[in-house]
Amino acid sequence: MEKAKFPFFMVAVLSLVLWASRILPHQPNFTPVLALCLFTGFFAKGRLFGLFLPLLALLVSDWMIGFYPGWAFNYVAMTLILFSGSFMGPRFSSFMGFGFAAACQFFILSNLGVWMFSQMYAPSFEGLLHCYEMGLPFFRSTLSGTLFFMVVFYFATKGLAKVSRQEWAKRV
Prior knowledge:
Layout: H1 7-23, H2 33-44, H3 48-65, H4 71-85, H5 92-117, H6 125-171
């Protein structure tokens, strides 16, 4: 899969979709957010706007739906996922492996933030383990949503790249 020549447009579109996916009704944690962060990192290849636009989309959506205890941990996780997307290879297996890793990383960091700042769990190692245990149903949804959307975005992007090459060949 070739990278776009002008990734700013792709990053802007992905950031808009990221924002909408958090605002529109959806199954809890079954969203394209992590997949969009990975794809944005992939297309932006470490450029500053590749971090700024998706994080701005997250910030605006959190402002609209409300901030929550430990939200900063989610931003750290999303930033790391955005960065890691720039290391994805163009192969399907790379995309799926990064999707799996992103879901795991988000689960670990987001639940740590909940444990530390929500006061829902005892401030002990047992409380932390209980927090992770209670987060497992959300992890299943996050993982399945991320992998599902990684497949959708991978093949959609691959198809668009093929179409654009064919259109380009017709015009030359």
